[in-house]
Amino acid sequence: MENANAALEPQHTQLTLLQSASSYYYYDPYEKRTVEVPLNNLDAFISLLKCVMGTGILAMPLAIRYSGVVAGVLLSLLLMMLLTYCIHLLISGMTECCRRIQVPQVSMPQAVQIAYQSGPRCVHCFANVAGFLTSCVLVIGQFGLCCVYIVFVAKNFKEIGDYYCRDFNERYYVVGVCVLQLPFFLIRKLKYLVPLNLISNCFLYLGFLCIMYYLVRGLPNPQQRELIKPPADWIMFFGIAAFSLTAVGSMLVVEANMAHPQSYLGIFGVLNLAVFFILFSNILFGIMGYWRYGEQVEASITLNVPQNEM
């Protein structure tokens, strides 16, 4: 009997080491996760489009101007593949953090803190600071994006108001936009925003079609446009394209509110399908804008279209 126990002891030790290497064998956070009002896959797809598609696409023609048509397409593909891969790694890492401490869900700052606490002993003391700094980066980034959108919407309302009514100070339009957005801020469940996101996406693409109407009129000879610009100009392309194609915080929020988060990642997951649709829209809009206006393209393509038409 003692010999049998002695023979089983190495196997038990080996199994214990195998289990400790990955907590997947005894805890699945997806099975334990509960969301009060979850999103289905279609809801998540609609929400992702709304989160990522925005004012950045209006600057894509300028990005293509700095890179050239062929270089712009290739660099956009490369950038989006890199960003999507990083999102996959981030969500996989957050899921592993959930497994290690056996909780159904963690936020990004909590995941960073857990990662530091699970790392080498010399970095344990930085865990709280790393989590706090991550929260600061997310808050500052989201606050800055919200400010950009409010100012952008206010400027567009001001252009319409100045043309059809009278000239008011831009600050009044900013206050007006903030007041109009207050009811939407009171909606705390992402599921309840899905119908509004769908309506917004429809109006968004309707606006793109209106702009595309001006882009396809009077297209010059394609040979007049450069295919590849000097690499020294590509840094401007990366800055504009990164702003247009990314929304890391929103991508994480959508995954956290899904009924089946397993469907978010993967080759044909919700994230990859949304990314493909977003990338196609940005590249098409960027190429058409640069083809139409060339080196005269403005920071926002709306500044190139006729200002004397409704």
From TrEMBL:
<keyword id="KW-0472">Membrane</keyword>
<feature type="domain" description="Amino acid transporter transmembrane">
    <location>
        <begin position="41"/>
        <end position="309"/>
    </location>
</feature>
<feature type="transmembrane region" description="Helical">
    <location>
        <begin position="234"/>
        <end position="254"/>
    </location>
</feature>
<feature type="transmembrane region" description="Helical">
    <location>
        <begin position="42"/>
        <end position="64"/>
    </location>
</feature>
<feature type="transmembrane region" description="Helical">
    <location>
        <begin position="194"/>
        <end position="214"/>
    </location>
</feature>
<dbReference type="Pfam" id="PF01490">
    <property type="entry name" value="Aa_trans"/>
</dbReference>
<dbReference type="InterPro" id="IPR013057">
    <property type="entry name" value="AA_transpt_TM"/>
</dbReference>
<feature type="transmembrane region" description="Helical">
    <location>
        <begin position="126"/>
        <end position="152"/>
    </location>
</feature>
<dbReference type="GO" id="GO:0005774">
    <property type="term" value="C:vacuolar membrane"/>
</dbReference>
<feature type="transmembrane region" description="Helical">
    <location>
        <begin position="70"/>
        <end position="91"/>
    </location>
</feature>
<feature type="transmembrane region" description="Helical">
    <location>
        <begin position="172"/>
        <end position="187"/>
    </location>
</feature>
<feature type="transmembrane region" description="Helical">
    <location>
        <begin position="266"/>
        <end position="291"/>
    </location>
</feature>
<dbReference type="GO" id="GO:0015179">
    <property type="term" value="F:L-amino acid transmembrane transporter activity"/>
</dbReference>
<protein>
    <submittedName>
        <fullName>Glutamate transporter polyphemus isoform X5</fullName>
    </submittedName>
</protein>
<keyword id="KW-0812">Transmembrane</keyword>
<keyword id="KW-1133">Transmembrane helix</keyword>
